[in-house]
């Protein structure tokens, strides 16, 4: 250590920060780094810029500047455009204008449009407490009643039918209270099973006669609208919203079943999930449209839309179950043990400790499943339902509008894009919020 | 009940069925099972009475009856007099065609878009983001229908159509019309066998060269260029043979361009608009998802890995090859395979544009014409299920392999048949966890594995059968064959399958199966089963001895192969 | 760590210059991270760099093997000036070994493969030879029996020792350490520090960012204190700890030694 003395050094003053040498910051530097770092990149950048500069004005011109908004047929559209001096292609939005109501409601009677619109508005009210945690919890009661209300508003007929269906849940609840705490002391699971059985019995044997009886006593009904008349975005929303609402609880049950250590339960759940995930939705829709009635007692048949909703729900539930299972698997074993150590029984520990965390973890996956389900509702057009995609075919066949393509599909695509993109942003927002919550 | 003697044990009371942990599970399960069986019985009973009421029966005999409809895009011989079974086969092949084409294109699109999204070229990255976000959020059905409609409405009539060119520079020779796409296709002449031979030799040589390069590197440390030489061998050799033959005057393979004859183009390959629309739309849609997987996979490798490699003096390209890609692949491949599966399932949307895939034939026209909803839909679902399960199985094998190498980090989440078995069987799970104490249970796992492979074999058998016996007359349903032929056929394909798996995965569980097939094989030939009759077109003895040899080779390869062995068994042995 | 006596016989500092940094400046965008750094390291020197978080210690040593690019001034390593010439960078990187805070072992390769990767692909050593070298260094860091395991199966301390062995396999003439012990438990810290001390005893030139003051006292022949991107004070360890000159150094030392 000979040179130790020579190393001693103390800075006499602090050096103030100075600006970086020119050329290493600023927009030019940025452009060199991010647009033209290598010749190949420069070429790519130039091609991309040219592409954007060509495409954007072209789209704006096609969709807005040269577009024709009001006309009776494609030929008329062309005349108007030619009169305006348009060369090349242009959007003929007149057709969307003319068929707007069909895109929205299908063949729903126009004097009754207020009913689905009201249902939609109420949907927002019902959704609000679910999406935003700070709203009063009492609003959830309305959310619970909403499905029956919406059913009645859209399909009409006697109010007593949905009410008696709702009564099934009341029956189940009463049975549960009576069996679990009140009259007899049964285990929670047994009480729940019995309650479920009571509700099923009510729906199978008592519900319709009760509804008829009440209808006779106090007729409360609005005009009935057939399922065949439903269509357009209304149908897509009905399928999407009901599928989403029902697939989540079912998916949770399936995931729990798959994770349970009872082999029979587990086997049933696993087989169900793997089966559903192994076949395309379209085959399940075929089952709904042609086969489902075979599985019901002879003579019964129920509504196609309802059958489709059931199939879509089952389909989404299987995917949901896998997403939630992923969330359950991501939880550390310690959480299960801690819950058990606190003396919580299976359902309590699931409800209070495990599921809230697992669901939180899997929110992005759940929302992705929702998005997938919503996009998948378009498949019902293949079995002849008049959803926004299905309703395009007859419009294209209309001799007035024969030859229009982009406008139809673009319009419908835009609708779906807005919803799906919105959902995915919401999920990113939740994800971000979640991350900060955890810190 | 007896008097209570031991408070902790206690006698039996009815209430304990639910309150005692010893019985509770069994009780719940019994109830669940009864409920399940009751529901099942109820459903089947309903079906029987409904069918009876309609005067229908449940049988697959209609499959041998003439289909009576035309299929205009097909890979094998088919006329409207062919049976429904043949129609279904045509449909299945069409599904596989679009699935394979789609997976290939989607991978290309996805990898390019995913990598570009990560590039530090701002505008390119943003454009790719726009692509991914747009395409992912629009239902694929709309994209398919839009493309098909655009092709039908806006492409020119064949009479006006010319060939497409790339930016006005290169003539691709493709003709796009509102009747479909006409693509130049190869025509094979007499000498083409030489080219194919050269290709095979090139592949063998390139494998040999790769080994040589590795040996040289091991011994001297010198790094030989591998990729260019291998490419040169595989591509160059056939090319040279072709050029030589052409120079001699007998070009072995020529490209035939479509030519306008009358109202339509003739020659080349014809693809209907529905096929092209389906193919492109599925690829673009799935490509967006694959791009996300690729991006996530590359991002999943921490920056420290690159820095460590750089600090050791590795160049960026080597770092990519040796450090980043091997790690990113583990993250990318499982979701990539699920995307392939999704694409295959989504190809059933073909029915919306009239492309005759399995759904269009079996679930479409055959269903409508015969009124056999139950049977056709069952077959259709079985078909898709078996594809899904096969893909899951491959994915599972891959995952297992990867997990063995890297035990600490999770390799993503892969729901599959393997998981199903994992969940049903304790031993298998312990096996994958790598617990050496469970070695005695390998037998159990082996048997379970047998089930999986057997299923895979059946599936492969079906494919082999479809391709080998391309004559509709011979294409009678498997279950109508004589039993001995059924078994032998299964054994043949099973042996191919296990040899294949052995080579691809070097998986110790394949050895059980290879051994078993070998035994079956020998037994069958000793019993005088006509093995060669399976593929009557091949010369005598090829099937019998070939199958035998393949099996022995597979086993030998597994036992004595000098490759660094990745199988679990060997790892356990090495670790002692 | 006072219990082990250090054999200083090999720890000679020669006059040959290993690293020379002259008026080096670096910016991250607008942010001036390193300001007018001047530093000469002779062969055989063992330098400990300390300073508050964000003072630019990591950036400084990462500039030495060009994991970060400097914008002004000059860095000369082993007589080779660091420019954007790829050849120079390659040469310097294979002469300079680096150990990271978070080990950065390659999880898909075994310990042995981790160690042989660079010798095989950069130095073009035959595999057998590379493996012998790797086993030699693994023995030196006292984990030869783990050679066929994967990094994930090792404890943190073992992983960091493997990282050291991996760097040594390239036979570097200079070693850089960036807080090699700060992600470890106390027990493991000792095993890693022991390895580093051994390395120092063999006369390796070392630049080490660490807050292990015991280590600094024992092996360093110079301690550098950095703050706000500049070298505030440097001295022999005894002097540095007993007799800090600058107010900032005093404050820092009181914080770090205070508890
Ligand atoms: N890639 C980067 N881009 C922008 N700023 C950076 C980057 N890396 C580091 N910095 C900033 O440079 C400064 C110095 O960072 P450096 O990592 O060298 O600090 P350090 O002294 O090693 O601190 P620590 O003790 O926390 O490791 C910090 O203020 C940091 O925020
Ligand atoms: Mg640091």
From TrEMBL, chain C:
<feature type="domain" description="ABC transporter">
    <location>
        <begin position="19"/>
        <end position="253"/>
    </location>
</feature>
<dbReference type="InterPro" id="IPR050086">
    <property type="entry name" value="MetN_ABC_transporter-like"/>
</dbReference>
<dbReference type="GO" id="GO:0015424">
    <property type="term" value="F:ABC-type amino acid transporter activity"/>
</dbReference>
<dbReference type="Pfam" id="PF00005">
    <property type="entry name" value="ABC_tran"/>
</dbReference>
<dbReference type="GO" id="GO:0005524">
    <property type="term" value="F:ATP binding"/>
</dbReference>
<comment type="similarity">
    <text>Belongs to the ABC transporter superfamily.</text>
</comment>
<keyword id="KW-0547">Nucleotide-binding</keyword>
<dbReference type="InterPro" id="IPR027417">
    <property type="entry name" value="P-loop_NTPase"/>
</dbReference>
<protein>
    <submittedName>
        <fullName>L-glutamine ABC transporter ATP-binding protein /L-glutamate ABC transporter ATP-binding protein /L-aspartate ABC transporter ATP-binding protein /L-asparagine ABC transporter ATP-binding protein</fullName>
    </submittedName>
</protein>
<dbReference type="GO" id="GO:0016887">
    <property type="term" value="F:ATP hydrolysis activity"/>
</dbReference>
<keyword id="KW-0067">ATP-binding</keyword>
<dbReference type="InterPro" id="IPR003593">
    <property type="entry name" value="AAA+_ATPase"/>
</dbReference>
<dbReference type="InterPro" id="IPR017871">
    <property type="entry name" value="ABC_transporter-like_CS"/>
</dbReference>
<dbReference type="InterPro" id="IPR030679">
    <property type="entry name" value="ABC_ATPase_HisP-typ"/>
</dbReference>
<dbReference type="InterPro" id="IPR003439">
    <property type="entry name" value="ABC_transporter-like_ATP-bd"/>
</dbReference>
<keyword id="KW-0813">Transport</keyword>
């Amino acid at each position: 250590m000979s040179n130790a003395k020579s190393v001693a050094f103390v800075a006499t003053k602090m050096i103030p920060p100075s600006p970086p040498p020119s050329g290493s910051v600023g927009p030019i530097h940025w452009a060199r780094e991010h647009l033209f770092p290598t010749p190949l990149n420069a070429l790519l950048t130039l091609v991309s810029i040219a592409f954007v500069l060509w495409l954007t004005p072209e789209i704006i011109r096609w969709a807005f500047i040269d577009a024709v908004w009001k006309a009776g047929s494609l030929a008329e559209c062309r005349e108007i455009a030619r009169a305006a001096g348009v060369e090349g292609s242009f959007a003929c939005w007149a057709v969307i204008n003319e068929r707007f109501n069909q895109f929205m409601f299908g063949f729903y009677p126009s004097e009754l449009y207020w009913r689905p619109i009201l249902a939609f508005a109420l949907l927002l009210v019902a959704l609000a407490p679910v999406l935003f945690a700070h709203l009063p919890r009492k609003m959830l009661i309305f959310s619970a009643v909403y499905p029956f209300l919406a059913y009645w508003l859209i399909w009409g007929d006697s109010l007593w039918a949905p009410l008696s269906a709702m009564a099934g849940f009341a029956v189940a609840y009463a049975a549960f209270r009576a069996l679990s705490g009140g009259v007899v002391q049964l285990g929670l699971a047994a009480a729940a099973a019995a309650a479920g059985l009571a509700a099923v019995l009510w729906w199978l044997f008592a519900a319709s006669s009760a509804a008829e009886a009440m209808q006779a006593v106090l007729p409360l009904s609005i005009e009935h609208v057939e399922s065949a008349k439903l269509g357009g975005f209304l149908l897509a929303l009905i399928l999407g919203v009901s599928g989403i609402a029902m697939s989540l609880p079912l998916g949770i049950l399936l995931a729990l079943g798959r994770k349970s250590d009872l082999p029979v339960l587990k086997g049933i759940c696993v087989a169900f999930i793997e089966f559903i995930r192994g076949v395309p939705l379209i085959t399940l829709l075929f089952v709904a449209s042609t086969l489902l009635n075979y599985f019901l007692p002879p003579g019964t048949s129920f509504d196609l839309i309802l059958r489709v909703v059931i199939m879509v729900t089952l389909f989404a539930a299987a995917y949901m179950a896998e997403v939630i299972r992923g969330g359950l698997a991501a939880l550390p074993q310690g959480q299960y043990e801690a819950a058990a150590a606190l003396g919580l029984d299976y359902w309590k520990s699931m409800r209070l400790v495990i599921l809230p965390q697992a669901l939180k973890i899997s929110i992005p996956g759940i929302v992705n499943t929702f998005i997938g389900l919503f996009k998948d509702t378009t498949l019902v057009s293949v079995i002849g339902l008049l959803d926004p995609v299905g309703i395009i075919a007859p419009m294209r066949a209309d001799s007035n509008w024969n030859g229009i393509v982009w406008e139809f599909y673009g319009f419908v695509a835009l609708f779906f894009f807005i919803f799906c993109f919105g959902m995915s942003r919401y999920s990113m927002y939740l994800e971000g919020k979640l991350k900060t919550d955890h810190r | 009940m007896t008097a209570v003697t031991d408070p902790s044990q206690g006698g039996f009371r009815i209430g304990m069925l639910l309150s005692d942990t010893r019985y509770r599970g069994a009780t719940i399960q019994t109830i669940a099972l009864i409920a399940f069986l009751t529901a099942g019985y109820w459903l089947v009973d309903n079906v029987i009475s409904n069918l009876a009421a309609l005067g229908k029966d449940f049988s697959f005999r209609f499959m041998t009856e003439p289909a009576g409809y035309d299929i205009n895009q097909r890979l094998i011989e088919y006329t409207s007099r062919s049976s429904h079974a043949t129609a279904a086969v045509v449909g299945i092949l069409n599904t596989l065609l679009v699935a394979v084409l789609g997976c290939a294109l989607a991978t290309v699109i996805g990898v390019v878009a995913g990598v570009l999204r990560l590039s530090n070229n701002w505008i390119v990255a943003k454009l790719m983001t726009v692509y991914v976000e747009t395409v992912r959020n629009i239902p694929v059905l709309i994209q398919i229908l839009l493309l098909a409609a655009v092709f039908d409405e806006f492409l020119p009539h064949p009479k006006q159509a010319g060939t497409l060119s790339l930016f006005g520079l290169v003539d691709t020779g493709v003709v796009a019309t509102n009747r479909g796409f006409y693509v130049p296709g190869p025509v094979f002449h007499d000498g083409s066998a030489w080219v194919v031979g050269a290709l095979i030799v090139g592949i063998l040589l390139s494998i040999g060269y790769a080994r040589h390069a590795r040996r040289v590197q091991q011994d001297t440390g010198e790094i030989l260029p591998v990729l260019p030489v291998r490419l040169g061998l595989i591509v160059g050799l056939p090319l040279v043979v072709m050029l030589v033959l052409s120079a001699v005057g007998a070009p072995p393979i020529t490209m035939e361009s479509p030519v306008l004859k009358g109202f339509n183009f003739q020659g080349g390959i014809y693809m209907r608009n529905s096929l092209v629309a389906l193919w492109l739309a599925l690829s673009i849609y799935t490509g967006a998802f694959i791009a996300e997987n690729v991006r996530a996979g590359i991002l999943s490798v921490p920056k420290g890995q690159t820095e460590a490699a750089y600090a050791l003096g590795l160049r960026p390209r080597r770092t990519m090859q040796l450090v980043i890609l091997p790690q990113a692949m583990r993250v990318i491949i499982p979701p990539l395979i699920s995307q392939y599966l999704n694409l295959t399932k989504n190809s059933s949307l073909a029915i919306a544009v009239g492309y005759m895939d399995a759904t269009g034939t079996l679930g479409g026209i055959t269903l409508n014409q015969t009124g056999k909803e139950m049977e056709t839909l069952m077959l259709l679902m079985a078909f898709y299920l078996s594809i899904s399960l096969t893909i899951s199985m491959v994915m599972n094998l891959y995952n297992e392999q990867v997990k063995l190498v890297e035990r600490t980090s999770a390799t993503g989440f892969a729901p599959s048949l393997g998981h199903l078995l994992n969940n049903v069987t304790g031993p298998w799970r312990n096996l994958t966890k790598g617990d050496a104490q469970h070695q005695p249970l390998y037998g159990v796992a082996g048997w379970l594995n047998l089930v999986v492979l057997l299923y895979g074999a059946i599936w492969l058998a079906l494919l082999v059968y479809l391709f080998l016996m391309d004559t509709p007359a011979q294409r009678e349903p498997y279950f109508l064959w004589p039993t001995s032929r059924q078994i032998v056929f299964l054994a043949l394909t099973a042996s191919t399958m296990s040899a294949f798996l052995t080579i691809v995965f070097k998986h110790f569980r394949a050895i059980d199966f290879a051994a078993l097939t070998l035994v079956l094989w020998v037994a069958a030939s000793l019993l005088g089963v006509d093995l060669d009759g399976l593929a009557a077109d091949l010369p005598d003895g090829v099937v019998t001895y070939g199958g035998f040899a393949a099996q022995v080779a597979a086993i030998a390869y597994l036992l004595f192969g000098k490759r660094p062995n990745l199988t679990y068994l060997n790892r356990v042995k090495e670790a002692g | 760590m006072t219990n082990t006596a250090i054999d200083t016989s090999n720890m000679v500092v020669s006059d040959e210059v290993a690293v020379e940094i002259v008026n080096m400046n670096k910016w991250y965008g607008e942010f001036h991270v390193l300001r007018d750094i001047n530093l000469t390291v002779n062969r055989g020197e063992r330098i400990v760099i300390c300073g508050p978080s964000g003072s630019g210690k990591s950036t400084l040593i990462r500039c030495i093997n060009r994991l970060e690019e400097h914008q002004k001034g000059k860095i000369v390593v082993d007589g080779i000036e660091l420019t954007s010439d790829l050849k120079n960078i390659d040469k310097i990187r294979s002469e300079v070994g680096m150990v990271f805070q978070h080990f950065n072992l390659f999880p898909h390769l075994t310990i042995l493969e981790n160690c042989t990767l660079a010798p095989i692909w950069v130095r073009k050593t035959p595999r057998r030879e590379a493996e012998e070298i790797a086993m030699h260094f693994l023995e030196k860091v006292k984990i030869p029996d783990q050679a066929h395991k994967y990094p994930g199966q090792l404890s943190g301390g073992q992983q960091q020792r493997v990282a050291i062995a991996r760097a040594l396999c390239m036979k570097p003439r200079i070693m850089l350490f960036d807080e090699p012990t700060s992600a470890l438990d106390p027990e493991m810290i000792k095993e890693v520090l022991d390895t580093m001390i051994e390395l120092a005893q063999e006369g390796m030139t070392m630049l080490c960012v660490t807050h292990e003051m015991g280590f600094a006292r024992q092996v360093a022949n110079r301690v550098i204190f950095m703050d706000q991107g500049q070298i505030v004070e440097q001295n022999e360890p005894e002097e540095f700890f007993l007799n800090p000159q600058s107010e900032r150094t005093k404050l820092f030392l009181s914080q770090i030694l205070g508890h």
